[in-house]
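Exercise: predict the structure of this protein bound to nicotinamide-adenine-dinucleotide.
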Amino acid sequence: MSDDATTTPVRLVHVGLGNWGLDWEANAVPPVAEVERVAVVDGHAPTLRAAQERLGLPDDRCFSSLAEAFAAVDAEAVLVTAPMVAHVPLAIEALDAGKHVLVEKPFAGTVAEARTAVELAEERGLVLQVSQNYRFRPAAQAARRLVAEGAVGELSVVHADFRRWDHDAAVGDSRHYAFPHPLLYDMAIHHFDLLRMVTGRDAVSVYAKVTDPSWSKYEEEAAAVVVVELEGGLVASYRGSWVSQAPQTTWDGEWSVEGRDGRITFTGRGATLEEEQVELRVGHGPDRGALEPVELPAPGLVGRAAGLQQLARAVRGGPPPEVTGRSNLASVALMEAAVRSAASGRVEDVEQVLPAEVLS
Ligand SMILES: NC(=O)c1ccc[n+]([C@@H]2O[C@H](COP(=O)([O-])OP(=O)(O)OC[C@H]3O[C@@H](n4cnc5c(N)ncnc54)[C@H](O)[C@@H]3O)[C@@H](O)[C@H]2O)c1
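Solution:
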């Protein structure tokens, strides 16, 4: 590969220019020098027009389908920020056309569906990455490092809490209430993925009790209490709510990671990096000291931009991204098993949706 080929920006088509897609265009794509967004696609004509206007793009950069964009523009990769139901179909269309793919979370509602894209990408030798942006933040990264270094010794338990009040949307902004599994698909996937990342362990089984109070505007669960067993018998609790009256957490939630020799707490992904916080207490017994703040290194790119940079580098022959489609199957599996548990009322084995050999 020539130097030019390794240093020229990856030519990216961006499909799905709704609320979050426009936010990518404003905040996540521009900081990544390694990509050039060469076209935008949205199947909804008014949304496409609004995006064209907002981004100041000429007609020959705006398309109503991936097929039209691929016919008109020389592209190497596709960023998918359409709703979940369209993730795998769009990824497959892009992979079939020989393009690398970065797809928003949740990758898919089931492991079986996600696997179709994973297998196609591997057959074609293309990068397929899932944007689990909460990973690429200073607090979560530091918590992972501390656990891996054994700062608190062998882990005993993990607790994670996510509390928001998202119940006052004006008419017209209320689509969230009709989302399929607004807590487990839309939000807990982030926390399930962080749980795997911070502990370095995959989930073995899960029990999920969901609730949707009689006054809730949500069509499906507004909140859930979940117990996860991870490899090695480690147990985690997760409480998530869109209708919480308690003090609100940041998007990451509030985490307590406890071990034989101490405790790590962390929170993050607030509006600013100042809200990233990690605290550590080492010691046991009554004389143990207080939690002390852990200094967080100044990050380079964070969140979605960090993931997009990984895609570009992988396309140009660098290391694979941290969250490949295949590795993300373990987070999708925990989410899917939690949904199954909520329906069955039983503990569900994660292996039933993701046989161990699929990850190896
Ligand atoms: N990671 C995060 O922190 C985060 C935050 C918000 C949303 N998201 C994710 O981003 C995605 C999009 O969310 P949103 O709120 O912007 O949704 P949205 O419904 O506002 O926008 C999605 C857009 O995709 C377009 N679209 C759908 N199917 C298409 C297809 N086949 N071809 C072309 N265009 C198509 C729609 O017309 C729409 O304009 C979801 O997967 C959501 O989970 C992630």
